[in-house]
Design brief:
alpha/beta, ten-stranded mixed sheet, 36% helix, globular
Length: 332
């Protein structure tokens, strides 16, 4: 079972994943079932059809005895309190994620990404959940979109949620990712369909750069963060970058493109760690840990250099054309 000592065992743990029917949520649930000895894995989400399909699929894979499926919404604090009863670990992957949708539906984005975060924190404290890890996005680092702003507020709430624990056992932390390949709304299937129909592909900027992370790798990083967290950390796994132009060429080789420019709330280059976080950022080899909200004694790793930033443009890791084609082709 999890505890605050820095030691973590999945043996016999009850784990709940919000947004568990989403792309990353499914990846996390799969990793929990295949790679840990968790006793029970609960999927909490709003879509009953996706839950039914996922329940059938996982039962067919022999996971039926270890999985539970709860209909619920992070906006409903009462439902969360009931769902968290007897839960040891919560991995929070539910969010309103689409930049344009959040921009034109700001009240809804605030209800889900900010007030939903508060509901989850309060419910976790009341239920005695031992560890809560919230999944975040590059959009939350120096945000220029409403989506990014709501995620930044949510992140801060989780990082400082530890202050509300008092003498109670528990820990809150955050993990931040760039783009996940194959995620809902991905340009991969959309551009393939357009290319097959002979349509011109709208490209924002061929020189723009993006992080490109396989879902399986992201799920592995999530489990690692839950295992290692003490409370107050913001984990930033290292990830390779791609140029948008190269990505489009890998998705639909030879297709005609048209440059349409960046959309409102969209950056040319993604940022996972800003310059103001550098004094609090530890390099641990395969990831960075921003320690703004936690004091670390004897943490493994080294402090990054002054003025350090981590953007998709200045990244040391890049996917080759072959790697990108293989990743896009496999849908990983």
């Amino acid at each position: 079972m999890p505890d605050k000592s820095g030691e973590m065992s999945w043996e016999g743990a009850s784990v709940l994943v919000t947004g568990g029917t989403g792309t990353l949520g499914r990846g996390i649930v799969t990793a929990l079932l295949e790679r840990t000895a968790a006793r029970r894995v609960i999927v909490l989400s709003r879509d009953e059809h996706k839950q039914w399909a996922m329940e059938e699929e996982f039962a067919g894979l022999g996971h039926g005895a270890r999985t539970r499926f709860f209909i619920g919404d992070v906006r409903d604090g009462k439902r969360l309190r009931l769902a968290f009863n007897g839960v040891d670990v919560v991995i929070h992957a539910a969010a309103m994620k689409h930049v344009a949708a959040a921009e034109f539906n700001p009240f809804e984005a605030v209800q889900t990404n900010i007030l939903g975060s508060q509901n989850l924190i309060e419910a976790a404290i009341e239920a005695g959940v031992k560890r809560v890890l919230a999944v975040s996005t590059d959009k939350a680092s120096n945000p220029v979109s409403l989506y990014g702003a709501t995620k930044l507020v949510g992140d801060r709430m989780f990082l400082h949620g530890n202050a509300y624990l008092g003498a109670r056992d528990g820990a809150f932390a955050v993990i931040r990712f760039g783009n996940l390949s194959g995620s809902r709304g991905s340009i991969v299937p959309k551009f393939r369909e357009m290319a097959a129909a002979g349509r011109v592909l709208p490209v924002t900027d061929p020189e723009a750069t993006r992080y490109w992370v396989a879902v399986r790798d992201a799920a592995t990083q999530v489990l690692s963060a839950v295992t290692d967290m003490r409370g107050g950390e913001l984990f930033v796994p290292k990830a390779p970058s791609v140029k948008v132009g190269d990505l489009v060429a890998a998705i639909a080789p030879g297709a005609e493109t048209r440059v349409v420019g960046l959309r409102p709330g969209e950056k040319k280059h993604e940022e996972l760690i800003g310059v103001h976080d550098a004094p609090h950022t530890i390099d641990q080899g395969d990831r960075y840990v921003i320690t703004t909200s936690v004091k670390y004694d004897g943490i493994v790793g080294r402090l990054v250099d002054s003025g350090f930033v981590y953007t998709s443009e200045n990244n040391l890791l890049w996917l080759s054309a072959e790697e990108l084609s293989a990743m896009v082709g496999s849908g990983s």
